[in-house]
Amino acid sequence: MYYFASDMHLGHGDAQSARHREELLVRWLECVATEAKAIYLLGDIFDFWYEWSEVVPAGHVRLLGKLAELSDRGVEIHIFTGNHDMWQRGYLERECGVRVHYTHEQTLLAGRRVWIGHGDNLNIKRQPMLQLMNATFRSRVVRALFSWLVHPSLAMRFGKWWSGSSRKAHGGAPDPEVANRALVEYAEQHPQATEIELFIFGHTHAPASYRTTHSEVYFLGEWIGCETPTYGVMDAEGNFTLKQFNNQ
Question: Are 180 and 199 in contact (CB under 8 A)?
Fold first, then answer.
């Protein structure tokens, strides 16, 4: 079995709700690990994450400990960076034993060709400001200057402020059709659309499934404010299903 989840945004909200969301994620990981051939976390696990050469953000120790424990037990864990936690540089791989993917990837799971990733920075040709913002945040020069010139405490305050401002700018939970349409279009127009059988995305916070001419497209949804968050599971025959974690 392969398991998929995204958009936990750990650190978002008040301390109590953020802690509850982290504990819920840890319980989900423990539950699925017993049957998992691999676990895929598709980005925005953290509401803001930035790594310096010798410094990482405080907190999230329950999740980090669980990732390390499961990895030590032989559970294969893949983390794809999202637009809120793209600034990683090897800490989770070294300390937790996970594999970090910095871009979307095509892979073979249960005999099916699958395209996996967070879903950000795709099909944004008609959004020049978003293109500029993405290019800036991904610039090695900007990142180096940010690391050298800004104290980590100030950097984390800025990052949390920016993350919250970005969320407010989008006006809360979007209509699934509006939020997901661009990525469904991306799947339809992908150069290998006739070969890829399944696209799996996070990012839109709107759990849904679609069918294109050649592929299935799934959106995993979010964990913010959800007592029964949505996740995806693929069985040994390649059948993909969206489910809810009831924590029972």
Answer: no
Euclidean distance between CA atoms 92 and 89, whole angstroms: 8
Cα dist from 17 to 4, 11, 83, 230, whole Å: 22, 9, 22, 18
Of 121, 108, 127, 118, which Cα lies nearest the Cα of 200? 118
Number of domains in the chain: 1
Residues 146-161, mean pLDDT to the nearest whole number:
72
Name the residue type at position 156. M
Average pLDDT, the chain: 84
Evaluate whether 24 touches 8 at the Cβ level (below 8 Å): no
Question: CATH code at 40?
Answer: 3.60.21.10
In this prediction, residue 171 carries a pLDDT of 47
| Helix (H/G/I), strand (E/B), else coil: 214 | coil
Pairing assessment for the beta strands 77-80 and 99-101 based on DSSP bridges:
parallel
* Domain range enclosing 18: 2-244
| Res 66 pLDDT > 90 | yes
d(CA 91, CA 139): 20
User: Do residues 119 and 204 touch, judged by C-beta distance below 8 A?
Assistant: yes
CA atoms of 47 and 7, how far apart (whole Å):
8
pTM: 0.88
Nearest to 24 by CA among 247, 207, 231: 247
